[in-house]
Amino acid sequence: MAEQFTEVDRLREKLTLLESLEISDQRQEDISREDVLSRIEKVIQTIVISVSKGEAPVLKVMNRSSWTNVRFQKSVGLVLKADVSTTSLRCDCPSSATKFALILKILSVIYKLVQSDSYATKRDIYYNDVQLFGSQRTVDFIVEDVSCLLKVPRRSLHVLATSKGFISGDLCYLEEDGTKVDCNSSSAATPVSSNVNGIRNIVSSAKFILIVEKDATFQRLLDDDFCTRLSPCIIITGKGMPDVNSRLMVRKLWDTLHVPVFALVDADPHGIEIMCVYKYGSLSMAFEAHSLTVPSVLWLGLLPSDIQRYRVPEESIIPFSQSDERKINSLRNRPYITCQPAWEREVETMQRLKQKAEIQSLASIAPHFLTRVYLPNKLRYGGWI
Question: Is the peptide bond before 302 cis (omega within 30 degrees of 0)?
Fold first, then answer.
């Protein structure tokens, strides 16, 4: 069994050497409760001063949907530029008054949480005033805006997010409240913690971590006893586009275990983008890139070139849609694709052939082809890029 991990072990040694040559820790440090309270007080003080002068208060919020506000740093991913464009929210302007008020409301909630050293989920905040917020999505966006406004990572705001991801494999740890979590069950997965920052005493002998794009594929790996067959390893899924907690978990495991991290995604533009979010981050969360990205993530499959290499049956291959064309054109213009020749060649192959395939298409070759042939061979012979 040892020889199946020879290439993975060599990769681990190479990655460890590369990490030692780079800056050891660029992550954002947690900000003290006193500092968070002080920053909120300064925002409120600015508003009070404006009112006392008879002026309409203004809040300046970073535009988190603009590519002009980010730059690409290969060792980290998408990070904020020093000089970013902002949007002015005026309390006397009909188009921004509501958002202005919602930010003040969230600031008030956060102040009380930090002051009392207690925590709440974004879902708790929403259900405390459903009529005011209107939707959970509104709360999510406002909390992230406040994090940018205060220049404080969300974990320091005492606001948690409900996790949607799952994890399984050779992993045990303690939650912040002392609860022991064992992810070794072969048939059932463990929900990703809603307070990843509070996890401690991580114990694992895993040789690698496998990020799985889809929940259906993740469940298939569990059903086929993948974690036992290729033990020791860890598999994790964010069930599509990953939530912050799934990304934090992958980052925490990478920081702690220093093992290779592979991605298993569909051979389509959406799958590639999801993999890039784990590796290099997202536009909207670029302000927290240092604690969310894992730049060492490697593409294990499904590679566009694998469609022909493994002779995936024609009936399992899907022609490109207009949406796919737009997405792949967007991806090809992003710096994190153009800086990786092997990735760029795969994207070019997909665009040239104008076809895509899901991971499940491998089942059309043989029912257990994914877990008993494709993945074991990829890991044994170094079939990643």
Answer: yes
Percentage of the chain exceeding pLDDT 70: 96
Over 70: is that where the pLDDT of 20 sits? no
The overall longest dimension of the chain from CA atoms, in Å, is 75
Q: Which residues are catalytic?
A: 127
* pLDDT of the residue at 39: 97
What's the pTM? 0.91
Three-state DSSP at 237 gives strand
Using 50, 70 and 90 to split pLDDT, how confident is the model at 107?
very high
Q: Is residue 184 within 8 Å of 232, Cβ to Cβ?
A: no
Helix axes 341-353, 322-332, angle to 10 degrees: 160
Integer-rounded Cα radius of gyration of the chain: 22
Cα angle: 277, vertex 135, 176; to 5 degrees: 60
- Alpha-carbon distance values, 24 to 20, 76, 176, 190 (Å): 7, 12, 25, 30
Give residues with Cβ within 8 angstroms of 14, minimum separation 6. none
Strand partners, 237: 166, 212
d(CA 152, CA 288): 9
Indicate whether 132 pLDDT > 70. Answer: yes
What is the edge-to-edge ordering of all strands in the sheet holding 200-203?
180-182, 172-174, 200-203
**Residues in a beta bridge with 172:** 182, 203
Using a pLDDT cut of 90, give the percent of the chain over it.
Answer: 79
Could you tell me which residues come within 8 angstroms of residue 244 by beta carbon, excluding any fewer than 6 positions away? 154, 161, 285, 292
